[in-house]
Amino acid sequence: QVQLVESGGGLVQAGASLRLSCAASERTFSMDFMGWFRQVDGKEREFVATIRWSTGTTYYGDSVKGRFTISRDNVKNTVYLQMNSLKPEDTAVYYCAADRLPNYRTYRDRNRYADWGQGTQVTVSS
After folding, report:
1. Distance set, CA 110 to CA 11, 21, 34, 85 (Å)
2. Confidence class of residue 45 from pLDDT cuts 50, 70 and 90?
3. pLDDT value, residue 122
4. Summary mean pLDDT of the chain
5. Which of 125, 105, 86, 126 minimizes the C-alpha distance to 35?
6. Whether residue 102 has a cis bond before it, omega within 30° of 0
7. What is the DSSP string of 44-104?
8. Model confidence at 97, in pLDDT bands (50, 70, 90)?
9. Largest alpha-carbon pair distance within the chain?
10. What angle do CA 52, 71, 36 make, to 5 degrees?
């Protein structure tokens, strides 16, 4: 099981930026995507962004497209989420996740991802 440790959450005002980090204890050959989801109490966990380790291809949820950028550092086994122009509706607990192959679920499906971090709170005030 891969251990994922997130950092970088906090309280900011609307319009500000934050960068989240997710360090993986290892990167296995079965790991294809590593990404971010977010969750607000009482709601389902929402897809935010994901990146394919092998190619660097990125995908984003519609609500963050153009504002958030996901990237990776292959040497550090770390994925980053740069969040710009933050809005109050971005307030949530952000979770890092890694999948395992073989896997036939879409990259947006939270059930594709087998390993999860503990979550980091992001709060955006208006």
Report:
1. 26, 19, 11, 25
2. very high
3. 98
4. 95
5. 105
6. yes
7. --EEEEEEETTT--EEE-TTTTTTEEEEEETTTTEEEEEE-S--GGG-EEEEEEEE-SS--
8. very high
9. 43
10. 70
